[in-house]
Amino acid sequence: MNLIPKSIKGKVFIFIGTVATLSGLAVGVYTYNEEIENAKTASHERVRLILSFSKAISEYVREVLNPKMYELLGKYTCIKEDFILEAQSFAFVTANIFHRVSGDFQGLRLRQVAFNPLNPQDTPTIIERRIIKLFKERNLKEYTEVVSINNYRYLVSAFPVRVDKSCLRCHGKIKDMPKIIRNLYKPKQDLNWKVGDIQGGIFIYEPYEATLLQARLDGILKGGFVFALNILIMGLVIFILNRYVFRPIDILKEHAEKISKGEIDEKIPIKTEDEIGELAKAFERMRVSIKKVMDILK
Question: Is residue 54 part of a domain?
């Protein structure tokens, strides 16, 4: 069975339809994939931005604010506190600032973890232990990957926390800890962190599944729109070809058949000045010539 029509009109329509459908699908799929890749890139950039922000806060508290607070606490003996948690703990400051700005980055979660922490809630998970181990083995400054937690994917980005001398005041021996730290966490044994060790890390989590789902929905909408636009253009091209090319040719064909049967009185309409119009003029001249000959023969 031959599926290809005999008429040029049918062949042209099939060709245009095939090209439009395939190109529409190709562009639609590309748009869909591009939307997902853009979402992934934006997600990585967003997480890295938050990570850099958290890192900058941590370094500022550790290198600038903490020493200054110690200087002030030593200078003004009237101050009862021996440690200002809200200003000297980089973990406390980072967590609170992150909490205040997290509304602009919905879904992101911050975890500051360490081996042998003051707060048991800061004990690293299996995934976090693996990443901290990578920090130690490869001397990495940052690390990013997609992880699965309870069958849900997250984009996690982290940087290591390396122990310096100032950390030992709160994470060394119990007797050396500030009273506020001892009263707050009530440690049962010395933590004995060591200067220079990578003790933990700061982790930023973004719900990757939700990001990809939204990207897929956007990709389907945009890809579907591109495909529909292609089909619409195809329909418009077919309409124009049918109206200004194939339909006038069909009309000329009908008149030619009438002339072949001797029906020569009906004038052939000439509606355009293009090639089809010129062809119609030629047919009309032929009709007039045949009519004159037949009138003479009568």
Answer: yes
161 and 283 assigned to the same domain? no
Give the range of the structural domain holding residue 290, as residue numbers without chain letter.
262-298
- The string of pLDDT tens digits covering residues 193-241 is 999 999 999 898 888 777 777 777 887 888 788 888 888 888 888 888 8
Distance CA 236, CA 245 (A): 14
Contact call for residues 270 and 243 (beta carbons, < 8 A):
no
Domain count, the chain: 2
DSSP one-letter string for the chain: ---S-SSHHHHHHHHHHHHHHHHHHHHHHHHHHHHHHHHHHHHHHHHHHHHHHHHHHHHHIIIIIHHHHHHHHHH-TT---S--HHHH-HHHHHHHHHHHHGGGSTT-EEEEEESS-SSGGG---HHHHHHHHHHHHH--S-EEEEEEETTEEEEEEEEEEE--GGGHHHHS-GGGS-HHHHHHH--SS-----TT-EEEEEEEEEEHHHHHHHHHHHHHHHHHHHHHHHHHHHHHHHHHHIIIIIHHHHHHHHHHHHHHTT---SPPP---SSHHHHHHHHHHHHHHHHHHHHHHH-
How do residues 100-130 score in pLDDT, each as one tens digit? 776 666 778 888 899 999 888 999 999 999 9
Given a contact cutoff of 8 angstroms between Cβ atoms, the answer to whether 81 and 180 are in contact is yes
Are residues 158 and 102 part of one domain? Answer: yes
d(CA 252, CA 174): 104
Q: Verify that 282 and 143 share a domain, yes or no.
A: no
Closest CA relative to residue 124, chosen from 147, 106, 105: 147
48 vs 42: CA distance, rounded Å: 10
